[in-house]
C-alpha cells in the first residue's frame, strides 16, 4: 500500500477533477457491462457540473483520494493536498456518500479510481474512510448499489458487504441500472 496518499473532502474547485476521473474510469470499468451509448448517457446524467452540484445540495459528500508524487511538475493540485514533504499530490480517485440516506444508514454512492491506480488498496481506503465517518456519526450500516456484473462485487464482499437483494432502476432514455444492493454493518 502506498503510504503517500491523502483523502480530502472535495470542494467546488474539485468538481471538474471528479468529472475527469469519471470519464477516464467508466469506459474501462463498464465496457463489458454497458453499451458505449449508456456509459455516455450516465456520465452526462451524473457528472455535469450542475449534476454534481445538485448531488451535493441533496446531501452527497465527495471525497478525493490524492496520491503523492515527488517532483511531478505537471501536477497542479489545490494547496490542501500539499503536505508531508511530498511535492505534489495527484487526484486518482473519489467516493461520494450520503449520511442518513435511510434512518441510521449511510449510502456509499460512488467509489472510482483511475485504472492505473486500481489494485493498490485505495478503494478499500476510501470505503474505510466513509465507514469511519458514518460510524462516528452514529450510523448503523453502510449501503451501496453495484451493477450485478461488476467485478468490484468481490472487493465489496471482501471488506464485509453482503448482498441484500437485486433491483432495477429505470434511469431514462431506455436505459436501466441493474444492481445488487449490498450492506455493511457498522456495529459489532
From TrEMBL:
It comes from the Bacteria. Residues 5-187 form the N-acetyltransferase domain. PROSITE patterns: GNAT (PS51186). Pfam families: Acetyltransf_1 (PF00583). This is Ribosomal protein S18 acetylase RimI-like enzyme. It comes from Neolewinella antarctica.
Amino acid at each position: 500500500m502506498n503510504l503517500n496518499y491523502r483523502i480530502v473532502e472535495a470542494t467546488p474547485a474539485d468538481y471538474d477533477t471528479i468529472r475527469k476521473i469519471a470519464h477516464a474510469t467508466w469506459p474501462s470499468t463498464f465496457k463489458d457491462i454497458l453499451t458505449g451509448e449508456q456509459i455516455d448517457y450516465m456520465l452526462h446524467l451524473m457528472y455535469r457540473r450542475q449534476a454534481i452540484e445538485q448531488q451535493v445540495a441533496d446531501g452527497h459528500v465527495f471525497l478525493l483520494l490524492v496520491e503523492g508524487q515527488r517532483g511531478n511538475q505537471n501536477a497542479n493540485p489545490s494547496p490542501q493536498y500539499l503536505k508531508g514533504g511530498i511535492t505534489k499530490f495527484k487526484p486518482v480517485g473519489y467516493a461520494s456518500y450520503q449520511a442518513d440516506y435511510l434512518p441510521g444508514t449511510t449510502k456509499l454512492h460512488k467509489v472510482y479510481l483511475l485504472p492505473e491506480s486500481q489494485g493498490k488498496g485505495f478503494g478499500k481506503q476510501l470505503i474505510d474512510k466513509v465507514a469511519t465517518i458514518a460510524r462516528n456519526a452514529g450510523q448503523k450500516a453502510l449501503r451501496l448499489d453495484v451493477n450485478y456484473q461488476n467485478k468490484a462485487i468481490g472487493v465489496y464482499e471482501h471488506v464485509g458487504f453482503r448482498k441484500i437483494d437485486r433491483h432495477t432502476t429505470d434511469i431514462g432514455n431506455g436505459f436501466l441500472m441493474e444492481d445488487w444492493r449490498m450492506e455493511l454493518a457498522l456495529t459489532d
